[in-house]
Amino acid sequence: MGISSRTGLAGVMACMATAAAVAPAAAEVPVVPIGPPLYVLNTVLPFDAPTLQTGMPLPIPGAPNGPRYVKGKILPTNMVPAIPFDSALPNTHISTPLPNPMTSGNLGTPELASPGSELRAATPSADLGAPIGRPQPGRLPGLTTPSADVSAPVVKGDPDAVALL
Fold first, then answer.
1. What is the average pLDDT across 3-20?
2. What b/e readout covers 92-112, taking b as 16+ CB neighbours within 10 angstroms?
3. Residue 139 vs residues 132, 133, 135: alpha-carbon distances, Å
4. How many Å apart are CA 72 and CA 99, to the nearest integer?
5. Distance from the CA of 145 to the CA of which of 67, 92, 113, 162 falls in 20 to 30 A?
6. What is the mean pLDDT of residues 89-109?
7. What local confidence, expressed as pLDDT, does residue 124 receive?
8. Residues 117 and 89: beta-carbon distance below 8 Å
């Protein structure tokens, strides 16, 4: 191993360390903040309109686990692969003053708060089985029962909410 190959190896290792340090910061999923104007309900409701602060998640598609050939099968497995999505459930806060029916004041302000959390999802996938078996030397392939498998979509998250008065 010469000096140039050691220098190249050191450069590759430095690049890998930098990529590992930057990866957690780049893994954050974006959320678009939303603050709907609910104050227009004040003309219709007999009490003050609620306030809502939330966001809209932006799903980011991942790389699908494409079809792969398995020894002993004619058709590849995972013919229609599931596509993974990463997203985030945004922080949500809803509050409204609760009027007191006996006086002109308020009893308090009930609130519902939900902290943000990660959300992972995957689309359904499909797999097909061939209606014929593998060809054998000297004879025709035999017929087999065709098969079709469809997987269910997957949603994984950890939503949480707290009600306050």
1. 53
2. bebebbeeeeeeeeeeeeeee
3. 13, 11, 7
4. 72
5. 67
6. 85
7. 92
8. yes
Place of tokens 């990660």: 118
CB-based contacts of 133, cutoff 8 Å, min separation 6: 74, 141, 142, 143, 144
Per-residue pLDDT of 38-47, as tens digits, reads 888 888 887 7
Q: Cα(112)–Cα(158) distance, rounded to whole angstroms? A: 17
Q: Which residue has the tokens 């209606």?
A: 131
130 versus 2: the higher-pLDDT residue is 130
In three-state form (DSSP H/G/I as H, E/B as E, the rest C), the secondary structure along the chain is CCHHHHHHHHHHHHHHHHHHHHHHHHCCCCEEEECCCHHHHHHCCCCCCCEEEEEEECCEECCCCCCECCCCCCCCECCECCCEEEEEECCEEEECCEECCCCCCEEECCEEEECCEEEEEECCCEEEECCECCCECCECCCECCCEEEECCCEEEECCCCEEEC
